[in-house]
Amino acid sequence: MSYTETDVSSASAAMNKYCEELDGEVAAALAVVGLSAERAHKEAEIRDDMIRVAHRSGASLRQLAKVSGLGRKTVTAIVEAGRTQH
């Protein structure tokens, strides 16, 4: 496997962001956890946007809850939050 200079720079930046005072295995683990949390947050934002699109297109709250694995109250809150943003 090969890495570009950009890959190495990104990894170094993550290490500095999440664990600048630590070294070794703990630092690497913290960097992975931090990057995973960032990715999960971004994916949740995308999921929420798609829930709102699907609802505007006619999907029911029950259908959305079923396919997303979320409760109806959570799906309702996501849909309602989209209404207050616009």
Query: What order do the helices and strands follow?
Result: HHHH
Count of strand segments: 0
Portion in strands? under 5%
Domains counted in the coordinates: how many?
1
User: How much is the average pLDDT?
Assistant: 88
Biggest beta sheet summary:
none
User: Distance N terminus to C terminus?
Assistant: 45 Å
Radius of gyration: 19 Å
**Uncertain regions spanning at least 5 consecutive residues:** none
What does this protein look like?
- The protein is mainly alpha-helical.
- The chain has one domain (5-85).
- Helices cover 81% and strands 0% of the residues.
- The longest helix is centred in the middle third of the chain and has 33 residues, at 24-56.
- The N and C termini lie far apart (45 Å).
- The model has no long low-confidence stretch (mean pLDDT 88).
